[in-house]
Amino acid sequence: MTLPTVPAGFMFGTATASYQIEGAVNEDGRCPSIWDTFSHTPGKTLGGDTGDVATDSYHRYKEDIALLKELGVDSYRFSIAMPRIVPTEGGPTNEKGLDFYERVVDELLAAGIKPCATVYHWDLPQYLGDKGGWLNRDTAYRVADYTRRVAERLGDRVDTWITLNEPWCSSYLSYGGTEHAPGLGGGPAAFEAVHHLNLAHGLMVQELRSAITKPDAKVAVTLNLQVNRGDADAVHRTDLIANRVFLDPMLRGYYPDELFAVTQGICDWKFIENGDLEQIHQPLDLLGINYYSTGLVKMSDRPQFPQPTEASTFPGCSDIDWLPTEGPHTEMGWNIDPNGLYDVLVRLHNNYPEIPLFVTENGMACPDKLVVEADGTKAVHDSDRIDYLTRHFDAARRAMEAGVPLAGYFVWSMFDNFEWAFGYSKRFGITYVNYETQERTPKDSFKWYQKLIASRELPVL
């Protein structure tokens, strides 16, 4: 049983990120990023893996786009690497870097695929990292300047622009904790990174609006909102610190007063300057949501706040316990809870009804094995991923039936790739990559998604 076809203009897509797939880190004028430095630091990534080669998509992009065309996607979400565009601080644009992304965009258009470009997906140039990275207010202006350079070249062809990918990760995991580059472990210092990322978003939107010439181009941001269950007080607190700290300034032009109250004593928020919130609050055409799993939280008896110097991925939540979630779980240890996707989409539509939504990432890491069939062909039988995606597409369909204006759905990821601190140990792709030979093999999930896209229908369970 299936629904009628999805609305006209609905985007079926898939997604990647520059540092996870491109490789070629020392070619055509690219400078090091904070992820180059982090991954080359002993003990930071599993097995010492780096993105030096990744899936070599810098050289194999034509082959990859041919696979995208075979898949039949409407749109492809990729990211642009600032280290390729502005490799020296305050220096000229690196034309070879822009040339590469222009070739990617033109190849996509020739294949009938709409380009969806994420302008910042975590690979900040190391020269900005050396000056404090997102703890330095000036970084927001440098990233906005880079955005202008990209938009001036590609603004006549890119269909959808995404300013930031998951600022929760590039603040809390990167500056509060130690899991992501640069891994500073500054605890409450993460709030300063949060604000500067918010500011960068607003400045980037303004640069995009002024440079884009494609009449129907859309501007968006992608957030990985935390969907927690359990104790109501704990859920409310984590919602403030993980979600509304981005949603409210971007979509409403303010930080919630409760946020200041619950962080009193660990953050004074004096880094917010006059006019910042007006800069951050810019009109958007779409809000992107990355969704994978839910959490389970409760208030504990521990002291409310960590010491200001204590490394904390989630500052302001030291009196909250994260409890084990019921299975099944993916290879990442994340629970499988499709209802969480339904809940977050409906909640966003109820609270921010003016903005259409799209799922910019959803997928599953599986213990994929490449097998050789009797006829000599290679295959990956990832029925667990197909089941995961089926259940989540069904959740999206139910959200649409509940009135959510869902504009698209991008499966993560098109390819197995460098999974950040987990290196190459986790496979999210619907295309299997042999990292020694770089051979690509479409998995069963690729073929399943191919049929889903062709039908223009969402599953009903």
Explain this structure.
With 461 residues, the chain is an alpha/beta fold. It has one domain (11-455): TIM Barrel, CATH 3.20.20. The chain is built from 15 helices and 15 strands. It has an eight-stranded parallel β-barrel, surrounded by five helices. Helix 8 (169-176) packs antiparallel against helix 9, helix 9 runs parallel beside helix 10 and helix 13 (338-351) packs parallel to helix 14 (383-401). It starts with 10 loop residues before the first strand and ends in a 6-residue tail after the last helix.
Q: End-to-end span in angstroms?
A: 8 Å
SS elements, strand count: 15
Q: What's the CATH topology name?
A: TIM Barrel
Tell me the name of the CATH class. Answer: Alpha Beta
Catalytic activity: Hydrolysis of terminal, non-reducing beta-D-glucosyl residues with release of beta-D-glucose
Protein name: Beta-glucosidase
GO molecular function: beta-glucosidase activity
EC number: 3.2.1.21
Task: Using brief descriptors, characterize the structure shown.
single chain, 461 residues, alpha/beta, TIM Barrel, 3-stranded mixed sheet, 15 strands, EC 3.2.1.21, Beta-glucosidase
Summarize the structure.
The chain has 461 residues and is α/β, with parallel strands linked by helices.
List the helices and strands and how they pair.
Blueprint lengths: L10 E5 L2 H4 L12 H6 L17 H15 L3 E5 L2 H4 L9 H16 L3 E7 L5 H4 L8 H17 L5 E6 L3 H8 L13 H22 L6 E6 L4 E3 L1 H20 L5 H6 L13 H5 L5 E5 L4 E5 L20 E4 L14 H14 L5 E5 L9 E2 L5 E2 L3 H19 L4 E7 L18 E3 L6 E3 L1 H12 L6
Parallel strand pairs: 1-2, 1-13, 2-3, 3-4, 4-5, 5-7, 6-8, 7-10, 10-13
Antiparallel strand pairs: 8-9, 11-12, 14-15
Helix pairs in contact: 3-5, 7-9, 8-9, 9-10, 13-14
Protein name: Beta-glucosidase
Family: Belongs to the glycosyl hydrolase 1 family.
EC number: 3.2.1.21
